Amino acid sequence: MAISVSVALLLLILAVIFIRNGGLKLSHATICVLLGFLLASTSAAPTIHHTLVSTADIINGVGK
Question: In terms of domain of life, where is this protein from (predicted)?
């Protein structure tokens, strides 16, 4: 578990650097995909999922 969190944190830092540089190449996109898969397997996944669902519900409620 600690290794996957460390790798997820490293990939998150790399993704932020790539986005700030303004150029997202295929290798950068691959890093972002790997970050997503690793985040899905961490203990943060339920919190991220709940936040995304809540945000989608709020956005859906605004349109009505």
Answer: Bacteria
